[in-house]
Amino acid sequence: MNLRIPGPTPVPDSVAQAGAADMINHRGPEFADLIKRSTTQLKEVFETENDLFILTASGTGGMEAAVANHVNAGEKVLVVTVGVFGKRFVEIVRVFGGNPIELDFEFGRAADPNRIEEALQQHSDIRVVLVTHNETSTGVTNNDLKIVSDICQSYDCLLIVDAISSLSSIPVKTDEWELDVVISGSQKGWMTAPGLAFVSCSEKAWEKNALVTSPRFYFDLLKAKDYLAMGQTPSTPAVSVMFQLDKALKIMFDEGLQNIYTRHHKHAQMTRDGVRALGLELFAEEGSESDTVTSVRIPDGIDGLEFLEIARSQFGTVFAGGQGPLKGQIFRFGHLGFVTDEHIEEGLSAIEKTLQKMHS
Amino acid sequence: MNLRIPGPTPVPDSVAQAGAADMINHRGPEFADLIKRSTTQLKEVFETENDLFILTASGTGGMEAAVANHVNAGEKVLVVTVGVFGKRFVEIVRVFGGNPIELDFEFGRAADPNRIEEALQQHSDIRVVLVTHNETSTGVTNNDLKIVSDICQSYDCLLIVDAISSLSSIPVKTDEWELDVVISGSQKGWMTAPGLAFVSCSEKAWEKNALVTSPRFYFDLLKAKDYLAMGQTPSTPAVSVMFQLDKALKIMFDEGLQNIYTRHHKHAQMTRDGVRALGLELFAEEGSESDTVTSVRIPDGIDGLEFLEIARSQFGTVFAGGQGPLKGQIFRFGHLGFVTDEHIEEGLSAIEKTLQKMHS
User: Fold this and answer.
1) pLDDT score at A11
2) Which of A253, A268, A286 is the last residue of a domain?
3) Which residue of B has its CA nearest to A19?
4) Residue B23: which of A3, A26, A240 has the nearest Cβ?
5) Residue A289: which CATH number?
6) For residue A177, is it within any domain?
7) Model's pTM, two decimal places?
8) pLDDT score of B326 more than 90
9) Residue A118 Cα, gap to closest chain B Cα (Å)
């Protein structure tokens, strides 16, 4: 089966096998070596010297950690939304009693930094901004993160970035761009099974953390910091997934980060060109198309759910459907993590055959 | 290495290998089959027809889910503590703004149901009771769960049970004993890598859930229920660990639950007899010794941490140390999950050799 969804992504055999290694004591020296090595390597990919934590959770757990540690009940925060995952941030803020000011952009478009600045001018009491770097639901990348960060700096705001489906596939320069909290997840570009979220925190984030009273226990980052100093996690981590991550990181550094980014851009371009060559329309606006997932409009007269079902059951390719309001309107072609030219070519061929089948 | 800690426990090869299967779409039909099958089988082990959820988290995440969904800020709850994990419940309640009334029993002893009844008489406004079934930190089982449950019924209290290190190794009759919320974790008796928590909820628990306003998003059980109806989870689950669990459950049902309980009792008895035969003293009071983990007093004149280090590095056996106030006072010998007679014999032999070495 050609798994062409934007996560969980295919896991290379050697990584999958690494997860089957003998179980170890999560409070012993082997684990301490493992978590220290992985944390150091993750920081290298995040391009940061900030603290970074490996949490046993999905990426959404990482988003909750970011909110619960940095947003107070009653606090106004700016949530920049360009799709379903931006909306998820809104929901989490609301659950924690925060007051999310939603700055919505039309699905398919990137966020406009000017409008972010306007919003911060208008709401001078906002001190936290939440942004999605790569919106998995629409296939849009907010490429202006550095500009957004500069704006946040000048309005004295903490910037929290969901980079779940970009980090390790698309460059994220955490320190250079001054991103305070950055989140990713093992099942995306990291070529690892789901189960781990990664969260980095700047000094400014820690300062805010100390002032936040929102309830957090499982996702308490300060506790994670204390345990990491001992080479441990506060509670039992997903050890087998960490074994996989260790191997995947080795493969990634062998390939080289720049080569990985170049490969992702090439495969994204192949996908976009191929989709257009089939007469289909991309959903993301030009210039903001993601290098990890391509969203494609379902053509008129085609049932979106039936398209997915035929591609899967008859042509061995699993695409993702649209989420929320985009259900039935688009399908999504993932090309992040462990991807070869053949995966892309076979994916494009599956689209062609499925549409032929549906038209016949 | 003979991993003789009370979790994570050794994973049988076939289970470890099952985790290396090809990744699948967590929103597709294969996953729906998987989660429905595992949930049904877990309910069989829990002996319940209540709702049951598989969460991507450690057991502590399951504990947080139990509290966040069933305890309001400001609410008085009775927390029965017989060790470190009971204390963890206290901490979680406090983090969520609850008012934990701690009913502490001396470490090494089981909870006395009479004192639970007295506490509920004294605090007539308590409507939630939290109890640890098997206290991993002391090797004590609270065998009187049914009596505790009867008391909770008569005082109209919801009963939340941490059965993380008992369920699947020691019988837990969720429905017969009327346990409202029951928690377990994949890395214990389930012979599966860490990363999954299991939580069951009674009708009475759902009624309380609807009245609770504590913040919960990642651990929102109502959301988990909505998604489970579609054969999904709210966010991406630890798919590879779920592959393992599926295989482990198959092995467990092949062996038979009664046989598993008998085997655990036998291995626990072998361990206790063997430890006593070495002239060592059990930490747990007689009659409350756990069938999943045996706690042993470190003899006078022996450094507890050095004992662990020598057993590991020279005799290939990993025991767990004491936690919290028991650090250096006891060591713990895990015998839950995938355990053979040889594991126990080799474990006992490692204790003997380590002590000989330290005395020489």
Assistant:
1) 98
2) A253
3) B20
4) A3
5) 3.90.1150.10
6) yes
7) 0.98
8) yes
9) 30
